[in-house]
Design brief:
The complex is a heterodimer of chains A (265) and B (302). Chain A is mostly helical and 265 residues long. Chain A has helices at 2-15, 19-41, 43-48, 53-91, 94-97, 104-140, 152-179, 184-202, 215-220, 239-261. In chain A, 75% of the residues lie in helices and 0% in strands. Chain A contains ten helices and no strands. The two termini of chain B are 35 Å apart. Chain B is built from eleven helices and 16 strands. Chain B has two domains: 4-222, P-loop containing nucleotide triphosphate hydrolases (Rossmann fold), CATH 3.40.50; 226-288, 2-Layer Sandwich (Alpha-Beta Plaits). Chain B has helices spanning 44-51, 73-77, 95-106, 112-119, 135-147, 165-182, 193-199, 217-223, 235-244, 264-276, 291-301, and strands at residues 4-8, 11-15, 18-24, 27-29, 33-37, 62-64, 67-68, 80-83, 153-157, 185-190, 202-207, 210-216, 227-232, 251-252, 256-260, 281-287. The chains are: A mainly alpha (265), B alpha/beta (302). The A-B interface holds A 6-7, 9-10, 13-14, 17-18, 87, 90-93, 95-103, 263-264 and B 15, 49, 52-56, 73-75, 77-78, 80, 82, 84-86, 88-93, 97, 100-102, 104-107, 145. Chain A: The chain crosses the membrane at residues 20-40, 60-82, 112-141, 161-180, 187-205, 241-259. Chain A: It holds the Pfam family ABC2_membrane_4. Chain A: Keywords: Membrane, Transmembrane, Transmembrane helix.
């Protein structure tokens, strides 16, 4: 445990001056600010719709969530998986990293956890900023109905789903970036995968849930709404999430075996 | 307890069908500076990577401080500091940050980073991004990284690569100091014999994955039979005279005659003999066969 912690601290120390790390903060700040600005400057249009609190939150949070789930999330995850490994490829430091008195499992796990952590921070900020900026809008434009509904469950559930559904992609891309020492190959494969994921998810193909890249998009599609229930109080652990977690677990273990067998040339 | 810091027993290593290291039996005594010599591509770096368990060796072929490496990986690595090929440095971090990162990984005090920077003369460049460092500075930082854990055994793969003469001398002195004062063992690889000759106490010569020579530096010198060079007038007559007197002549130029050296007394007698027969001797000295040539001979014959 201690060596995982040490490795994790080192990962943080190494990356704190890189774009990958700051992306986790800048991305949510940027996107949430943009959407908020849109709702602020275009408030008249939004107010004409006469949304009740819940729907206003849905349209406001949905603006970020949809862009994220469809396109940005898969690419962000790919970029994280790439950066965490590329820092060693680029500097030719795998050999020193694995020559340290730390077990290989810790080094590998810490790298993986660090990528997971960055994604978590990013999505947490998305949820928190959506919540905060929503209330800021309410304060700036008192006619808004944000204060009528508490969106925290909806936000937590949505972003938790998005987080969990992206772990499958993360594990897959993590292995690709671990083996392939360049930018184009893992990102290229990921790009094709994402397009496939978006297409299959929007066509609602029966087996789309088996493609890791389509899971974030699928996870955000609200499928069944039971009568009399809050439509935003949906189940987190749906089939897509289980698929994603299974992919994540299996590929994480596979990645470890690749690491142990990997010859450091 | 074994007296060897490193011992390999008939080590074999292949990349696919290609044999990189063949039946290698290194014996690096504790406290020595072991010069690991060989031309480029001889298998030096591969061997060092095996010693770091970066490449997996067959069981019971590699022992570090008497312990089998595969079953004692972490305990062994704790005692080793290494510089493999070009130093592995995070270019976006400063020299100091690179060292601090290593301190984090090793669980040692961060103050050690400054100490190491001072040791390798990088204090002034401590906060400069390391991808802005010159090759020599990177090499020094690499050495600092290898030393930061205060390891008992240092594996240095061509540490003077890219250093200027001053830097080379510093590294040389540092190695001598580390072994003499701090009782470390150093394995240093190089393809330059002259470099190794100045510091090493022991030498191993490797070519095409096989160990061709292993022993102390004096034993290596013994291998090179010394010669006696005589600068003399009337070279032709003198060599004819010596041949007639039963001496073996190795080579002859228009100024010098070279014979095998046997002992100081014999050299004196030879001198007297030539003078008594009317030759004028300008100089007479013992010449050791150039180790560089010896190295070439040893590696060529393989």
């Amino acid at each position: 445990m201690r060596s995982i912690y040490i490795s994790l601290v080192s990962e943080f120390y190494k990356s704190r001056k890189t774009l990958a790390f700051w992306a986790a903060i800048l991305l949510p700040v940027g996107i949430c600010s943009l959407v908020t600005f849109g709702f602020y400057s275009g408030s008249e249009k939004v107010l004409k719709m006469n949304y009740p609190g819940m729907l206003l939150w849905v349209s406001y949070a949905g603006a970020t969530l949809n862009v994220m789930g469809m396109l940005i999330m898969p690419f962000y995850v790919m970029f994280m998986a790439f950066s965490v490994n590329n820092i060693e490829h680029k500097n030719d430091t795998w050999k020193t990293l694995f020559a340290q008195p730390l077990n290989k499992f810790s080094i590998y796990t810490a790298k993986y956890l660090f990528a997971v952590l960055l994604i978590f921070i990013c999505l947490f900020l998305f949820a928190a900023l959506t919540f905060g900026f929503g209330h800021l809008l309410q304060a700036l434009i008192p006619k808004y109905t944000f204060s009528q509904y508490n969106p925290s469950t909806f936000l937590i559930n949505s972003y938790t789903k998005l987080f969990l559904s992206s772990l499958g992609i993360l594990s897959l891309q993590f292995i690709l970036s671990l083996i392939l020492a360049d930018f184009l190959k893992p990102i290229g494969i990921g790009f094709v995968g994402t397009i496939m994921g978006i297409v299959t998810a929007s066509l609602k193909w029966k087996y789309a849930y088996l493609i890791p890249y389509s899971l974030p998009a699928l996870a955000l599609q609200v499928t069944k709404i039971e009568k009399g229930k809050d439509p935003l109080d949906f189940e987190i652990f749906s089939r897509e999430i289980w698929t994603s977690l299974t992919y994540a677990a299996v590929l994480f273990v596979a990645g470890y075996f690749i690491v142990t067998k990997k010859s450091i040339k | 307890m074994s007296n060897f810091a490193i011992e390999t027993v008939g080590l074999n290593f292949n990349f696919g069908n290609q044999t990189i290291v063949k039946d290698l039996s290194l014996q690096v005594p504790k406290g020595s500076i072991y010069g690991f010599l060989g031309p480029n591509g001889a298998g030096k770096t591969t061997t060092i990577k095996i010693l770091l368990n970066l490449l997996k060796s067959p069981v019971d072929q590699v022992f570090i401080f008497g312990k089998e490496i595969n079953s004692n990986r972490i305990a062994t690595l704790k005692r080793i500091g290494a510089l493999v090929e070009q130093p592995a440095i995070y270019g976006h971090l400063s020299g100091k940050e690179n060292l601090i990162n290593r301190c984090i990984l090793l669980g040692i005090k961060k103050a050690k980073a400054d100490e190491m920077l001072a040791l390798v003369g990088l204090t002034d460049a401590a906060n400069k991004k390391s991808n802005k460092y010159s090759l020599g500075m990177k090499q020094r930082l690499g050495i600092a990284l290898a030393l930061v854990s205060d390891p008992e055994l240092l594996l240095l793969d061509e540490p003077t690569n890219g250093l200027d003469p001053n830097g080379i001398i510093e590294i040389r002195n540092l190695m001598i100091e580390l072994t003499a004062k701090h009782n470390k063992t150093i394995l240093v690889s190089s393809h330059l014999l002259a470099e190794i000759e100045r510091t090493a106490t022991h030498v191993g010569i490797i070519n095409k994955g096989q160990l061709l020579f292993q022993g102390t530096i004096d034993e290596l010198h013994l291998l090179s039979k010394p010669l006696l060079e005589i600068e003399v007038d009337q070279v032709e007559n003198a060599s004819a005279f010596l041949t007639n007197s039963g001496f073996e002549i190795v080579s002859k130029t228009d100024k010098k005659i070279t014979l095998p050296f046997s002992s100081a007394e014999d050299s004196g007698k030879l001198n007297t003999l030539l003078i008594q027969n009317g030759f004028t001797i300008y100089s007479l000295y013992k010449q050791r066969k150039d180790l560089e040539n010896l190295f070439l001979d040893i590696t060529k014959n393989n």
